[in-house]
Structure of AAA family ATPase:
Amino acid sequence: MCAGAPWCAVRLVRSRKGRAERPPVTAADSSGRRATSAEVAREIATEQAHVDLVYAELAKAQARAGLVEADGLARGRTDRTGDVRDEELTGLFERDALVFNAARRRSTLDTQYEGLVFGRLDLDHALGKDDAQPDREVRYIGRLGVRDDDYEPLVVDWRAPAASAFYRATPVEPMDVVRRRVLRCKGPDVVGVEDDLMVTDPPDDLVVVGDGALLAALTRSRGAQMRDIVATIQRHQDEAIRAPARGITEITGGPGTGKTVVALHRAAYLLYSDRRRFESGGILVVGPSAAYTAYIERVLPSLGEESVTLRSLGDVVDGVTATRLDSPELAATKGSLRIRRLLSRAAGGRVPDGPTEFRAFVAGKAVRVDTRTLDRIRSQVLRNHQRNLARGAVEAALGEAAWASVREGDKAEFMDRFDGHLEVEAFLDRWWPQVDPREVLLWLAAPELALRHGQGAISPEEAEAFSASMREALAEGTWSVADVALIDDLAARLGPVQDAPAEERGFYEIEELEDVSQFGVAEVGGGRAARRAGGGVERQSADPRERLLQGRIGTPGEYAHVLVDEAQDLSPMQWRMLGRRGRYSSWTVVGDAAQASWGDAAEAARARDEAFGTQPRRDFHMDTNYRNAREIFDYAARVVREQVPDADIPHAVRETGVDPVEVTARAADVRTAVASAVEGLLDEVEGSIAVVTPSRYAAELAAVGEETGRVVVVDPMSTKGLEYDATVIVDPDEIVRESPGGIRVLYVALTRAAHRMTLVHLDQNGDQAGDPPRD
Ligand SMILES: Nc1ncnc2c1ncn2[C@@H]1O[C@H](COP(=O)(O)OP(=O)(O)OP(=O)(O)O)[C@@H](O)[C@H]1O
């Protein structure tokens, strides 16, 4: 528990620059007494009456909304950050009434989130003005704006300028706020209120209740999914959320400082502030893993926003989904810019098993174009064209070479016959087929090809590992996450696969096309098969190769805003992949260098800078850890500081009085030791528990706690961005040893628990199970 509410408030209210600010005054320290239970009940009843009114209005708004839904979402645009004009409010409210339809669909979420109306401001516009009469106003804040029949606001959207005082007011700068109140609701029912005072001498009629909403939110148990923080956004977080859309907004800070959740609220804010631009242009949110996207996927819907595209790094390219991870060494090879040379050579190389010379009879003359000439044509054409778009250029160049091999009779007549000649077309289909980028990667399953194309770019050992990984893909029918950026790079080199125009195909051509898979163009057939199958939904093939090539690689969509979380882990190739989607975007980029698992930070930084271009940048630094109990975070900070002295260490605000527990066991007894740690934690916390284990124990521990439905067994890298009520960290030394990220990866694992952490050290040689706790 926080060691005393007033103390807690002092530490929680910090300015962005860490300047001490006078904290809000809570019930206990304003009047020296807590509100009586009768007073609390009265306050709750007052708020309930208002919330009832809002829900009644919403029922009416919904009925109206159905009539004008089609054009409503386009309304409600405002870029302004000052006071909002009435007509702007009207636009916003109309939009909100429509959007409430979506909110209704999510009514089941109400039990998990603070309700629709979550805040109230008691303002006095005469505050600080000498001798002025009080000029009081009550303003309610909610997830959506709602007004009554007289166009009077019943609730202001949390993103509207009129709501900003809810997040920004402090006792030093009260912004006319006397009392800020957070309403705790379950669905439409108000179940509690928590107040902060911005003045030391509030009016007598103002009751002050509770110990502060933030602390209550932080102490709650963690579920399987992230919650929004709309009721308790702190001032320094609000500044990052409402920062202008333009340019690059970087949000940095140590573990648990709210970077992710702030970035997601920023996405919702951007949609609100310029809906036309961001809804039509699109916002892309990219996170490290599928587990991460599943963890955060409800935050934006709970804020009333459904239109954001959420992707994990293995899912950025349309047509490919990857969750498999390569070994860290192989991922490093695939992620480095060095790999581009290999890709470039493969994309520009011969089609394996394609013809190596051209022979035909054209206009009664024997034509022969040899291998060297064909190679020269290929490289010349590829200097100016993408391969899949170069069929015309290559046909013209081949015609010239064919004429050069003949030089007899009339050139114009020869060229005329050459153009569209069946033998020429048949040759081109095999020598210059449409090439799917995935097919090019699979060519590299041949070790000699990977070695040849990789020469001077990667080492022979790297080339062999690369080639082996393609054979693994072919055996399993799955891509790795690192492969996705390579597919995207190849797609940019090759250009989109072109469909042969159906009406021009004759009998022979159809035969040729049925057979093209052997020439590396399975995508053409696959794409068609997929469309025939009914548009969009793919049947999973039993054949691994077909699974790898299923679907169609789309041209990268361009977004108006790209939001990247855990940015410190992106490889240079992944930055390039995102750069293709954000050429004209503004960006929000979230990261913490001390949690990086990517080795070459300088190379990644260069690729990132290239993706951003020359846009202006602004930086927001978060320095308060809201996730970990102080005891847990102190342990983690001690560990990381030993090897990363300049790690960005935030300040944890919540105490539990319970230190992390350390036990040592024989490696042979790992299962018993971990099961016993889990059993203890199941009693201590209400929510989720993660067993974080290095890969060597993963199989043995896989089923620990399975029957409870509250325990997950995960590898350290997969915990990125996630959090649990409690964690069991298995063999921390091995976690450091097995990952090139070393101590930084252990630091990630050590900062996932909100309330409890147990470390199970393993002794490979010892014969004593259950040694006494260390320390
Ligand atoms: N103002 C706030 N009110 C309530 N909870 C908050 C607030 N800010 C952050 N939190 C909570 O703190 C926890 C950590 O937040 P988040 O995951 O966004 O941090 P992070 O900086 O991205 O962490 P990491 O880098 O370790 O992944 C979450 O449970 C989040 O809801």
About this structure: The chain is about 40% helix and 15% strand. The first strand starts at residue 117 and ends at 124. The chain has five domains: 5-219, 259-317+556-622, 328-349+436-549, 358-431, 628-763. The mean pLDDT is 83.
